[in-house]
Structures are given as C-alpha cells and as structure tokens.
Amino acid sequence: MPFTLFRTPITAEAYAARTATPARTFGLRALLLLTLLLVASALSGCATQEPLKPYNPMGVSGKVNPEAEKYFAMAHVLWKGGETCTEPEKAVAYLNKAIEIQPDYWQAFARRGLAYSEMGLWDEAFDDLTRAVRQHPSAENYAWRGLVAFRMGNQLGARKDLTRSLELDSSQHRAWNYRAAVELAEDEIAAACADFAKGCSNGDCTGMESARRQGVCK
C-alpha cells in the first residue's frame, strides 16, 4: 500500500489485519531498556470506571469547540495521568469524533497518535504526531514522534526528532532517555550513558538504573 501522510481512521478489519503481522524489530538490548522505560513511566494504565471530571485535562477550555473538547476529555482520562492505555481503541473512537468536529485540534491528533502506537499501528501514529508537530511544534510532540519513529525502526528520524525536542526543552527527561535508547541500538554506549545520566538529572533515573542493572552503564 503506498504511503500517504494523513490517513482516514482505520477500520476494525484493517486493524485486525495489521496487528496480525510481526512487529518491526531492532536491537534487543535497546528493546529491553525501552520496554522498562515505558512500563515504569505508566502510572496506572487506562480505566473507564471513573466519571469524567468537569474540566478539560489539557487546560485548553474555551479555545476549541466545546463538543470536540468533551470527546477529547473522554479519551484523555483513559490514560489516568500515565503514558500507557489498555483501551486505545475506545480512545481512538472518541478522538475521531473530536477531530471530525475540530479538524485543527492538535492535542487530539497527538493523543490519537499515542493511542495508535499502543495498538502497534506505527504509520498511523506517526501521521497523527506529524500533524501535531506541524500545528504545535513543542518539545513533547517531537519526543513522542521520535519514540514512534524509533519503534518503526527509523533511528535516523528518531534521533532527529529527539534532538529537536531537547533543543526546545533540555529538561525533557523523556527525550533524553529515548534518545539514549536510540544510541544504545546503534552501539553508541558512551553517548547513551551520557543521555541516560541527563535524563536522571532531569528527574527520571529509570533508564540509567536499567542500563546499570544490565551492565551497560557504570
């Protein structure tokens, strides 16, 4: 199938077909570290039993269509403040509605990109995060797109996005740790350990601790 930058929402049948294919692979050591980073950063996964709070969790109330904002909030609370969601399909359904109502809603594109990444739909995730980056080129959006690029096996693109994220905000511990994983995949051990150390000094020592346990960094 030819690559197109922005796709329409994926159908259930297409999702089943896509997720049945083997995942892209990269360095085992980097994969182990990245998995540990992602697991540790997730606070409590995704849940639907909590009632929707009467405010927009992104703090953008009044800046977008109220109906779109409502659907965005319904999706956002599924993460419960963490970075992993166990019901990404439901989040995508809400975000599809938000984007249909407000086509320039960059927060919804970013969040849908994260949901797609949870589903292993890397191309769709990259497309949505590219929309988010174009509309709002923030350090966080570059970091998320860099992570997705890495998971797609595009280490050059991942490094570029993560470096740009750090240029915009050098306190992004997530970007330091993810770039370290890219460097580790390319056997740049000294650079990876230096970036893990930067991530640790900015508040997240997960990467450095994992690397030390595996004998990668001192």
Could you characterize the architecture of this molecule?
- It comes from Nitratidesulfovibrio vulgaris (strain DSM 19637 / Miyazaki F).
- InterPro entries: TPR-like_helical_dom_sf (IPR011990), TPR_rpt (IPR019734).
- Keywords: TPR repeat.
- Pfam families: TPR_8.
- This is TPR repeat-containing protein.
- It is a single chain.
- This protein is an all-alpha fold and 218 residues long.
- It has a single domain, classed as Serine Threonine Protein Phosphatase 5, Tetratricopeptide repeat.
- The chain is 62% helix and 0% strand.
- It is built from 11 helices and no strands.
- The protein has helices at residues 12-19, 28-41, 66-76, 88-101, 106-118, 122-135, 139-151, 155-168, 173-185, 189-201, 206-213.
- Helix 5 runs antiparallel to helix 6 and helix 7 (139-151) packs antiparallel against helix 8.
- The longest helix is centred in the N-terminal third of the chain and has 14 residues, at 28-41.
- Residues 1-26 and 38-55 have low confidence and may be disordered.
Characteristics:
elongated, mainly alpha, TPR-like_helical_dom_sf, TPR_rpt, 11 helices, TPR repeat, TPR repeat-containing protein
